[in-house]
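> Could you send the Pectate lyase superfamily protein domain-containing protein prediction when you get a chance?

Sure thing. Input:
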Amino acid sequence: MMNLTRPSHAIILFLFFILAINSTSALIKYNLLKFGAKPNGKTDSTKAFLMAWEAACSSADPTMIYVPKGRYLLGSMAFKGGCKSPHITIRIDGTLVAPQDCRVLGKSTDWLSFEGVNGVSILGGALDAKGPSLWACKSSHSNCPSGATTLSFTNSKNIRIRRLLSLNSQMFHIVINGCENVHVQGVRIIAAGDSPNTDGIHVQLSKNVNIIKCSIKTGDDCISIGPGTKNLWVEQVTCGPGHGVSIGSLAKDLKEEGVQNVTIRKTIFIGTQNGLRIKSWARPSTGFVQGVRFTDSLMVNVQNPIVIDQNYCPHNLNCPNQVSGIKIKDIIYEGIRGTSFTQVAIKFDCSSKNPCTGIRLQNVNLSYLNKPAQSSCSNVRGKAMNLVRPENCL
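Output:
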């Protein structure tokens, strides 16, 4: 059985960050205004921000880039690693604003990207990516750019994001890719419920990631968990609108890495499309999902509170008549309660080639419009313990 206690490495990492941030007397501070930034929301401050990063990065001491109150217009920026500074804090008291023309950012992959950095903290502030104009473009089926992720960390270590507001991202809000030791806390994410591909926090190819006390309102997955995720802890997250918490889409790659040791606890889903979902494409793969614990979650009018979908094949493209090669095992649902917006509150639609195994339901109580809900099972093996409603089909 998995250990529900948060890993000790996370506690050590958290204490390290607290000590680093509170030792402000040792920080060398760089005020963005001194590099020529203008807090009027109209003057392009991209160059000033990059100059401040270069100064902080090249220092041998812990540094802080300070963004005072105001609105700062910024284009796409890439902050490269290899810094001499052991820890760089970016403290934001203002709002970073994207260009009004969605095509400026939309042609980039990322708005604010950090690549190969170590010991970077982002504290406070707001990121306004001006996404609605791009969403409107896409909905009108015009010739639109793909859109940019608001904030991304790639191949980085010892990252902290705290008390940040991400508003109206063009695409994903926050992406953690190929990273280690990441702590996200007190983050708020806001986008329209019908905004396309605006996942809140996406994690892939990363280990030792904590997402704590966050509020996510968006048009796609609140938290999406991709291949190669290991030791992920999610706690006290409120989701809605959105598509819930999703492990997947998996089986995009024949030889993709697996997902393991994931804990999702004390979450609240309000009016979301899904609650706790694992999904994989109906195509061959050597990937897997194992060692996942969903516990103590509240569902409020959620369309699909508990779902495993291994026959995921949008628009029946690239996967008709195939079966998922993803192996799913050792998945625990414990203390899941609330209301389903559809009659089938629990749906396990697993692969005929690789049935789901070791699925456990314990203390689950889901109803449908104050009436008994239903469960549906296909190619799944497991057991139910204590009270389980709807009547389980394991």
